[in-house]
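Hello forum,

I keep getting stuck at the same step: I have a sequence, I want structure tokens, and every attempt I make locally crashes halfway through. Rather than fight my setup again tonight, could one of you with a working pipeline run this one for me? It's a single chain of 392 residues.
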Amino acid sequence: MGALSHIRVLDLSRVLAGPWASQILADLGAEVIKIERPGHGDDTRAWGPPFMSDSDGEPTSESAYYLCTNRGKQSVCVDMKTPEGQAVIRQLAADSDILIENFKVGGAAGFGLDYPSLAQLNPRLVYCSITGFGQNGPLKDRPGYDFLVQAMGGLMSVTGEKNGEPGAGPQKVGVALTDIMTGLYAAIGILAALAERDQSGLGQHVDLALLDVTAATLANQATNYLVGGMNPTRLGNAHPNVVPYQSFVCADGHLIVAVGNDAQFRRFVVELGLPELADDPRFVTNRKRVEHREELIPPLQAKMLEQSKQEWIDRLEQAGVPAGPINSVAEVFDEPQLAARQMRVQVPHPLNPELELVGSPIKLSRTPVDDRRPPPMLGEHTEQVLAKLDLP
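Reply #2:
Ran it on my machine without issues. Output:
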């Protein structure tokens, strides 16, 4: 039995942040009922190509994007714009532990499905709202999208090549990271509210905003500004607080070196044949290396060009210096370590029994996750779920 096998989740969210949170709960064993628009479903069902192929190799209507964030759920088609649909959702909410929604601020209230309304039916309900900017504040009524908030939240200002370098300019992260991080924080907030409910017997409203999450996860870049008065800028693949902690060009491509302390730095420069740098007053501590970054990196880079990536990886690994390749996605999923960790899993789908998806990274010793249940087809469980309700 999963850790959350006693929990029911009513998921009114769509696209990524909310579905990511509910997928985590589904992996942990919760029953997740995904409410979708009749005839259309979640917007991401149409976000392709690519689309999953069936067992005969023919493309289906199941997009790869939708499949990435909806495994383990039940799909129920309900038109919540109608009184009948709203009545269905209220019945489901009355018997649920968690509700997740990502309407614009006030949108759920227009359907009578806001937290105050549903809490009267079910005081134990943990109700999670995900919006671009939160339930209050001057921007609360604006719609929020990952790309927009990566920009507004400062993430793009520290991502990309530094000014003066080829290709310089702000860049978004290559996945919708703000949505993903918001989904993670939503799951954490929901689980905290469930734990508190064990003491109080009451649910509560969990309010998540994409902008808040982006600001929070600027991490050291945020405190570099708040504590040190440093307004961070783009550094490409270099680190603002640790040197050398960046990519280098080798004879046949790029390599990452992550020197985390002074002892590793000494081993690194000795392996490069530059032992004198370890005792140079400009580089003897990380603080000094950050101050003299522009003087240190060129001689290191010149040495790295003398050998191939794999030659350096082998040598630096032997020397105890963290280093590794920059893998493509294909190379990542051919990595034996991921296979050993069950991060590439077969999820038999009604249309494709050999469907492969990314596994859950959560490893629980006594109540393991269940990440082998397929994402549902549109309306696949409508009759099954509605048959249990007391409908007119």
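The mean pLDDT is 96. If your local run keeps crashing, start a new thread with the error log.
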